[in-house]
Amino acid sequence: ERRRRDNINEKIQELSTLLPDCYIDSANKPNKGVILRKSVDYIRHLQQLVASQTNRNQELEAQLQGKTANGDANGTNGALAPSPQLQQGFGMMRIVPGSSNEIQN
């Protein structure tokens, strides 16, 4: 029983190290419940991000298919619409709980 509890506690601690700092209040040491809840929030956020990126990839592939269907096999007659991130310039993604992702340069 003790070994099982130690294993659970160890994995909860590992989860806390995987969370971005903005998910954990650094002023207070988070308890197990907070770590688990914030881990679930972060995983859901990442799932939404993956879904959004998947949709964007599908849009770009459809645009590319449209260009190749129009005889532009090399894609030189027009550029694909850049993503908002590219329009703003490359930057690091800042993950903020409960809000849309923002780009920082």
Question: Main attributes?
Answer:
57% helix; two-stranded antiparallel sheet; single chain; 105 residues; MYOD Basic-Helix-Loop-Helix Domain, subunit B; 6% strand; 3 helices; mainly alpha; elongated
Largest sheet: 2 strands, antiparallel
Q: CATH superfamily name?
A: Helix-loop-helix DNA-binding domain
Range of strand content: 5-15%
The helix tally amounts to 3
Instruction: Report the structural category.
Output: mainly alpha
SSE sequence, one letter per element: HHHEE
The first-level CATH class is given as Few Secondary Structures
CATH architecture tag: Irregular
CATH topology call:
MYOD Basic-Helix-Loop-Helix Domain, subunit B
Distance between the termini: 50 Å
- What's the mean pLDDT score? 79
**Percent helix range:** 55-70%
Radius of gyration: 21 Å
**Order of strands across the widest beta sheet?**
1-2
Poorly predicted regions are 88-92
What's the β-strand tally?
2
Number of domains: 1
Inertia-based shape: elongated
| Oligomeric state of the chains in view | single chain
